[in-house]
Automatic annotation (TrEMBL):
This is Ribose transport system permease protein. The chain crosses the membrane at residues 37-55, 67-90, 121-142, 149-167, 187-208, 237-257, 263-284, 291-310, 322-341. It holds the Pfam family BPD_transp_2. One of its GO terms (molecular function) is transmembrane transporter activity. Coiled coil: none annotated.
Length: 360
């Protein structure tokens, strides 16, 4: 059995003639206009949050350290979210990606700290193991046909066990100072880890939005049967998506090891909710109802500003978790509402044009 596509659009139950009268038509058009404006609401909300927290916390929030910290802290989450976008684009989920990040970080740290492996070799081994996780997920989902949610949930549990076994459930570190500079070195005042994230953003944006590979990936996610009939090798695209996601997770794991310098055995799960929240909240931005890189970046920035403001305001950790969870639910609800209204509006417009033609 295969996983259902995580598409956010639904079929409207409106009648084919789009009945409902002029009043309903005006309402639909008004809502459609609001939805069109909502494509850029994330940027406006970011600006509003910055102003709000700057007034609320004038001594701590509107500082260079705050925004440099946001850039550095969220870069790893962004890299993981970019990887998740690839599997989401083909209509699948990878719940093991966050734990793959945690395992990769731990393996990289253990190799350097406990086995005196050079950083270059440790990174190479870590990336290869991360890729192997993607191959395993690809076999379970694309070849055997297990639902991606079930398969990757099982894989995540296995990776958690491996992480614990490798580390003996202890913190590992510190890693060599030279390796820490890989993510913490500043270029023009910007942490290098943020620059790596920007490079990967541009790469993901170009591949997903401007190449045949990206267009076919979205086609597979939207309608795998039609894509198969059109000659697209859907199994290959689904399998490849899990490999790419795992590679991004491993890269994120390596960078978080470099950035923090110490690795906790429970590191991975902390990245699961924020990365998925950014992906789904991103579907309400720029290209509504569709996973996209630009929307994900805006969504993550919005979440990061909100979380940072709450932290500086002295709120407890559970408040930030509540913020991320509520944002995810709101994003999915908004995308579903948008998906229901657009088909209904299109039907109504066709009915209006047909009625005008008959009257003429």
């Amino acid at each position: 059995m295969t996983s259902e596509s995580p598409t956010l659009t639904t079929e409207s139950t409106a009648s084919p003639d789009g009945g409902g009268g002029p009043r309903e038509t005006r309402l639909l058009r008004l809502v459609a206009a609001r939805l069109q404006m909502a494509r850029y609401s994330g940027l406006l909300l970011c600006a509003a949050l910055i102003v709000f927290f700057s007034l609320q916390l004038p001594e701590t929030f509107p500082t260079r350290a705050t925004f440099v910290g946001i850039a550095g802290d969220q870069s790893v989450t962004l890299i993981l979210a970019l990887g998740l976008l690839v599997t989401l684009a083909v209509g699948q989920f990878d719940l093991s990606a966050a734990q793959n990040l945690g395992m990769s970080a731990m393996i990289c740290g253990v190799l350097m700290v406990h086995h005196d492996v050079s950083p270059g070799v440790a990174v190479l081994v870590t990336l290869l193991i991360g890729l192997l996780v993607g191959v395993v997920n690809a076999i379970f989902v694309a070849v055997i046909g297990i639902d991606s949610l079930i398969a990757t949930l099982g894989t995540s549990s296995v990776l958690l066990a491996v992480t614990g076994q490798v580390s003996d459930y202890q913190f590992v570190g510190p890693v060599p100072s030279g390796f820490q500079d890989v993510a913490n070195h500043e270029i023009l005042g910007v942490p290098s880890v943020a620059l790596y994230a920007v490079v990967l953003c541009v790469l993901a944006w170009y591949v997903l939005e401007h190449t045949p590979v990206g267009r076919r990936a979205f086609a597979v996610g939207a309608n795998p049967d039609a894509s198969r009939l059109a000659g697209v090798r859907t199994v290959r695209y689904i399998a490849g998506s899990f490999v790419v996601t795992s590679l991004f997770a491993a890269i994120a794991g390596v960078l978080v090891t470099s950035k923090i310098g110490n690795v906790a055995p429970t590191l991975g799960p902390a990245y699961l909710l924020p990365s998925f929240a950014a992906c789904f909240l991103g579907t309400t931005q720029l290209k509504q109802g569709r996973f996209n890189v630009g929307g994900t970046v805006i969504a993550l920035l919005l979440l990061a500003i909100g979380v940072k403001g709450l932290q500086l305001n002295g709120n407890q950790l559970w408040v930030t978790d509540l913020f991320n969870g509520a944002a995810l639910l709101a994003a999915v609800s908004a995308a579903l509402l948008s998906g229901r209204l657009r088909p209904k509006l299109r039907r109504r417009r066709r009915a209006d044009r047909a009625e005008a033609a008959r009257a003429g």
